[in-house]
């Protein structure tokens, strides 16, 4: 034993917590700030917005950014872009979160079950996943909209359903690798229940795959959601939604590019911030990367 | 101390080999473990030795029911535990624990040492949070670690320290039997001595029985009370450690012992290494499984499988000609290499210290 271990006191200073480790990385700290700001903006939209999102003034239609009283201009109906963006952010973030949490959660659960009860459940679950995978999200969206009627709820359902098989496959692959490791066998040898084994030993060690995919998927889901809105399955016209705003602006791309470009920039910022934060969070949560 | 703790009878694990894209037909069976029987007394160490692929580790996992046996029975304290499941099985697991070969893979990297060691107690509802914390400290000092190590993560430790953590975890629920699956073969020689001695000390203190899987005969010679030699999924010889090293009765055991490097140049030419490879357990040889490589094989060996039979009290071997084999002509008791002898001396020294 080295001299260091002869002392009774630990030499290392107390470990920084997850948040402290997260903030140490500049990119991570910035993305965290951005995500907090975006969420706050979405929540506080009614207070922050200068006007009502449905107030239109056709005399202001397609005013470019920088016009008087309209820093980001107005859309084709003469509604303030800032207001529309704030309310659109609300819908988009909610949609993205709900779909990733619901679909990703269910998918991860299926993936864990398939890997853990490989012998009995892997075949049935993965064939089910294959079937789900063979339907495009748009088609699922159409079917769900036909049942529940178009709206945000239908979009969230469709996006969740489209997320389940992808998450299930990724988690299963990751979990199968972990299942082969000795500590899973060691956990089994202690005599714990399967539920505890999955929750305490299998799942935490698959976290990095889940995190990476969830953050990537978050961006995809927002874009897919706007595609569904564009088809008239999601947010219905007066309701602001970032993707829908971008697709409306498409018609005026040559006369008033800001109507499409500004929502796209916001989508870009949202997706980027969540991706960087997701990566940083994955690293901060991994004890092996702690210093 | 002579009470039988574990009794294994005709234990087997057969893996079906399937072929076919749509309808999978069974085209063969891998007989990883094929009819293994042994018993283990309380406080005793039985070493299971053999070359890689002979089924040692599979046997260990079968005993713990980490793999389901295809045939045979496992009796623990006289109770048949071969088919128990659910809560009864989980309760039984408290009595038998395992120490793994690879200290880098056997600890969950996401749990602190304290969480890892306390978990078996938590699972079996032993004590409350405070008493468990105290017990973790006790166990850490028992295996030669410090109490401040409890809050660290496995990656912050060396291989030897991790192996100690694995041992502490196994001891947390005060088992009667610990299966050691090559617990020191992944460690440095100097660390091996520490861990082997730790295992021996703990055995003396707590009356543990060890099923000790190994391929290193120097380690076996140091820790075992009895040795069982496995070949191709079967036990070919069981004897007390002294008997086995002094008078091996099975040709395979002899070959194994003769293969230990020896510093005496006089022995050169006297030792004929075994030719060939371990036959496939998918298609084991007829009769005696060792006949393809046995220098003494005769017609009978090809046709008739020899049973494990008693040759002397406590000494069993599965060879038709165990009594009539030519004398070994080699002294295996001292037949350890210089390096191995040094290591044994090192073990002894470390123990005395």
UniProtKB/TrEMBL annotation, chain A:
Gene3D superfamilies: MetI-like (1.10.3720.10). One of its GO terms (biological process) is transmembrane transport. It is found in: Cell membrane. It is a multi-pass membrane protein. The chain crosses the membrane at residues 27-49, 93-116, 206-232, 252-278. Its main location: membrane. The keyword Metal-binding does not apply. The keyword NADP does not apply. GO terms for cellular component: plasma membrane. Residues 89-278 form the ABC transmembrane type-1 domain. Keywords: Cell membrane, Membrane, Transmembrane, Transmembrane helix, Transport. Belongs to the binding-protein-dependent transport system permease family. PANTHER family: OLIGOPEPTIDE TRANSPORT SYSTEM PERMEASE PROTEIN APPC, PEPTIDE ABC TRANSPORTER PERMEASE PROTEIN. This is ABC transporter permease. It comes from Neoroseomonas soli.
From TrEMBL, chain B:
Its main location: membrane. It is a peripheral membrane protein. Keywords: ATP-binding, Nucleotide-binding, Transport. It is found in: Cell inner membrane. One of its GO terms (cellular component) is plasma membrane. GO terms for molecular function: ATP binding; ATP hydrolysis activity. Residues 17-257 form the ABC transporter domain. InterPro entries: AAA+_ATPase, ABC_transp_ATP-bind, ABC_transporter-like_ATP-bd, ABC_transporter-like_CS, Oligopep_ABC_C, P-loop_NTPase. GO terms for biological process: peptide transport; transmembrane transport. CDD domains: ABC_NikE_OppD_transporters (cd03257). NCBIfam families: oligo_HPY (TIGR01727), PRK11308.1 (NF008453). This is Dipeptide ABC transporter ATP-binding protein. The lineage of its organism: Bacteria, Pseudomonadati, Pseudomonadota, Alphaproteobacteria, Acetobacterales.
